[in-house]
Amino acid sequence: MPSTGRTAEGLVVAALPLDAGSPLLPAWRDLARDPLVENLFFEPEFALAAAHAFGGGIRLLTVSDRPPEAPGARLLALWPCRVVRRWGVPIPALMGWTHGFSIFGAPLLAKSEAAPALRALLDAPRHLGLPRRLLMPYLPLDGPFAALLDDVLARSGRRRADFWAHERGFLAPAVGRDGTRDAYLDAHLSERKARQLARLFRRISADASVEHEIVREPGRLAEALDDYIALESAGWKGQAGTAVAKRPNEAAFLAGLVRSYGTDRRIRFDRLRRDGRSLAVSLSLETASTFWFLKIAHDETEAKNSPGALLVERVTRSLLADPRIAAADSCAPPNFPLIETFWSERRRLAHGLIEAGGGDRLFRPAVALEGLRAQAARVRTSKA
Question: What pTM was estimated for this model as a whole?
Fold first, then answer.
């Protein structure tokens, strides 16, 4: 299949390998700094760190103003994806890259040229000999990308079907009349819940002081990561064999994130500590204005004191006080009370199956097959 093509609007589309030595990297970084919608998981540092553990078969579907290897090429769109045979029949799909640490699927689009960039991205498969149906997991159903996608599809008459519509905890507080966001938690936490949290904190700190510590300094990040991994491994995930400590590729991936994001302090660990021992640890990363609450672990021997909830409360207060952070994504499953107790907004998402440019004679059977797959998943969940 061809690796590059040109659309009717004169933009260059390409399917490129995920390669740390690619000449695309500077343009990719420029695109990721100020996209239409921020997506941590499609930033080059995150993607390259995840490549060994999760990147088999991944290609970067790109749109640029000239061939991407040309000097000065400007990247207008990027979407990591792979060809999959998802339904057990010979109807392949082009599916966006997700894995256990990557659960948001909006492509990176240049803010100033988002509409032509998205049109070209959706048109790329027919120019590159790729499947004409695009499965985009975890697409936002609200916001600028959702509005743009609806408009592009409506103008072109292309079809779309959504599956597994759901929502997760999201923090997007408005600034109050006093110019701060300090009143957010007071307005959203009930008095009963606030009293309960205060009581739990008094109890957990009865024998020794408990402190909330934020670790950003590059020289301390490796120790904080080891602390998180040890705490997770000591709990139910360790017993089930799903902890990072049991999965060397995932541990190497997290160590890669520490190296990539630590130099500019865009990764942080929050710890609730007592007598030099962590009761709860969370791992988060930052894009330009969004905080991504990626993972949390807590000491399960202290479960009666809810150290995880006490840590989330303190993380939330730190975010409300930070004017750089406009929003925070919990990266959590739907109906996850640990987050939704404190964060009142919701990010609405769905897996979108989208018809590519040039039409797709197999789109209707693909929709039917994905519908059957979604139905079977619901049945399995209800029996679990």
Answer: 0.95
